[in-house]
Design brief:
Blueprint lengths: L4 E7 L3 E2 L13 H14 L6 H12 L9 E4 L18 H6 L4 E4 L4 E4 L3 E2 L4 E7 L8 H15 L13 E5 L16 H16 L23 E5 L5 H19 L12 H11 L18 E3 L7 E5 L11 E8 L2 E8 L11 E5 L5 E3 L4 H8 L22 E3 L3
Antiparallel strand pairs: 1-7, 1-8, 2-6, 3-7, 4-5, 9-13, 9-16, 10-11, 11-14, 12-13, 14-15
Helix pairs in contact: 1-4
């Protein structure tokens, strides 16, 4: 029996993906690809209640009670891969920031050190996909749509939300029905236009999306508030990743402290946390603006205790960043992409907490003002006098907003 879908996947940016042997990588394994498809399939269904989402997802991807579901089988061998010697983390500032974790800082030698094997770009792997026998009528279409979203916005491996592990997915016979290609686009503006056309096919017009239970989805999904910005094409993959780093790092530093900085020449998050060293937070106080980019968020002062933000009174919970970065190839090079999948920051049963040194944790409130300012600029994020942020939707920023 022939597969329902056959795909070729090319690695666009280096991917931090370990294996049983810490010196090598297992590559893109079938369970990983299936998990990625699950994630992007969920983003397509903000309208479903949790029980409906689980039931429909189980029919397509399987469950402990319902069986395997979608079968993913490699059709070309994926050889063992190790670090790309041509792009060591010591040579790129993006590695130390966007790849924090897989890459750590050796403070004595003042270099970045690779701790997780890195799959290098331009590698190819092929898969065959078989739908479950009891799949609903448009299941194949939805899998192809999830593959398109994966190619546009997703990646695999550690730090995949920060641009690493971006993928170019190519189904045999193309994306149906009529999803536009991205790699074949002439430039960044065409990539943005093709993204808009593809999202309108998958989701419908953005203004018509009605999430279940409210104006924002209760989980990471597309909505009327989702925002995408496509950067001008860069000549190399490294330049595209560095552009993601440059733009994101500059904004996060505007929220915190600039190096070097004069007394008082610091951002609102630095001011807030420094104030907490003198007067600990009270219940309901606003959390640092940078908390909206994911938790935990830890800050260490050279002359005082740390100020940490986390999920739950024990500070052990996490919230993944709603800001996803990727690199999309086009005919002129490689386009850096920022995607904001705006949703409820935390479920109603979970809360953010702040902790100063050894004090007890205090519940605080997180807003997404900073992510909004990243794309559109806003007076809700006060910056020091004379400091401006060329937000991504601003003409001349080098980014094109996707309108759909």
């Amino acid at each position: 029996m022939s597969p329902d879908i056959q795909i070729t996947i090319e690695i666009v940016t280096p991917a931090y993906a370990g294996g049983a042997d810490t010196a090598t990588s297992d590559g893109l394994r079938p369970p990983v690809l299936k998990a990625l498809l699950r994630f992007w399939w969920r983003t397509m269904h903000p309208e479903l209640a949790p029980d409906q989402l689980f039931k429909r997802e189980s029919l397509l991807f399987g469950s402990t009670s319902g069986g395997q579901g979608l079968r993913v089988v490699p059709t070309a061998p994926w050889r063992t891969l190790t670090t790309d010697p041509k792009d060591t983390p010591e040579r790129s500032p993006a590695h130390g920031y966007l790849a924090y974790g897989p890459v750590v800082r050796d403070t004595q030698k003042r270099v970045n050190v690779l701790k997780t094997p890195r799959v290098y770009p331009a590698q190819i792997v092929k898969f065959s996909l078989w739908l479950p026998r009891n799949a609903y009528p448009n299941a194949k279409t939805e899998i192809l749509q999830a593959l398109w979203l994966l190619s546009a916005f997703g990646g695999f491996g550690s730090r995949s939300r920060r641009g690493w592990g971006s993928l170019d997915v190519r189904p045999d016979g193309g994306f149906e029905p009529d999803l536009p290609g991205l790699k074949s686009a002439a430039d960044a503006r065409t990539v943005a236009a093709n993204m808009a056309a593809g999202l309108e096919i998958i989701m419908g017009p953005r203004t018509a999306i009605t999430p279940y239970g409210g104006t924002l989805p209760g989980f990471t999904a597309f909505s009327q508030d989702s925002v995408i910005a496509v950067g001008d094409a860069m000549p190399t993959i490294k330049r595209a990743v560095d552009e993601l780093f440059k733009v994101y790092n500059r904004f996060r530093r505007l929220l915190g402290a600039y190096r070097p900085h004069d007394p008082g020449d610091v951002g609102p998050d630095h001011d807030l946390r420094a104030g907490w060293l003198r007067n600990p937070p009270s219940p309901g106080d606003a959390a640092p603006l940078g908390s909206a980019f994911g938790l935990p968020l830890n800050a260490h002062f050279t002359d005082g205790p740390s100020v940490d933000i986390g999920v739950g009174p024990d500070m052990k919970g996490r919230r993944a960043s709603p800001l996803l970065m990727s690199v999309v190839p086009c005919r002129r090079g490689f386009c850096p992409v920022f995607l904001w999948l705006r949703s409820e920051f935390l479920p109603p049963t979970q809360h953010a907490f702040a902790k100063v040194g050894g004090a007890n944790a205090t519940m605080v409130t997180v807003t997404d003002d900073a992510v909004n300012a990243f794309f559109f600029g806003t007076t809700a994020v006060p910056l020091p006098p004379g400091i401006e942020w060329p937000y991504l939707a601003e003409p001349g920023s080098g980014f094109t907003e996707v309108s759909w």
